Amino acid sequence: MSDLDQLTQSLARNVKHWRSERGFTLDALAARSGVSRGMIIQIEQARTNPSVGTTVKLADALGVSITTLLDYEQGPQVQLVPKEQAVRMWSTPAGSSTTLLVGTEARGPFELWGWTLMPGDESASDPHPDGTVELIHVTEGELTLVVEGESHGVPAGTSATFEANLPHVYRNSGTEKVEMTMAISVPPAR
Length: 190
What we know:
The chain is of the alpha+beta class. It has five helices and eleven strands.
C-alpha cells in the first residue's frame, strides 16, 4: 500500500470515527465544516484524497487536530515519527513545502523550545502535571530520549511525542552535538 493509499484509508477511518464520537450526522458535519455531504461520503469511503483546506475544515468542525485525522498508527506512550513517515502537506515546483512532523491533541499552555545538547550532556526532568505532552524534532545528531527508564534513539530527521507526566531525560550519548526543537503542551490549571 502506498503512503497516499495509507493516508486516504487513515483519513476515512478517522473522519468516520470522530464523526461518530461527536454524534454528528453527515448533514451536521457538512453544515459545521462547509464541506459537502457528498465529499464527506467520498472521504469516509476512501474514494478521494481531499485538499489540505478540506482536511483542515473537517478537523476544525470535529474539534481535533489534522494530526489526529491523518494518524494511521496508534502507537505506544512514546511515538517516534521517522522522517519518511512525516506527512508532506504542500509543495511547489520551486521547492517550497510544509511537512507535518508530529502533532498531538492538546489544551492549555503550549511552548516551543530550541535545544542544543553537547556530547555527554543530559537534561533530566521530574514528571510534569498529568496531561502534559512533549513533542520533539531532532535536526542534528542523535538524541537519546529516556522515558520512565526506557531509552529511545531519536536520530536527526526523526520526531517524537510522549506524555511527560513520567520522569524523562534528554541525553546526548554520541560524539556530535544534538540540535532539536521541542514543544510542550501543559493542561490548564484546574
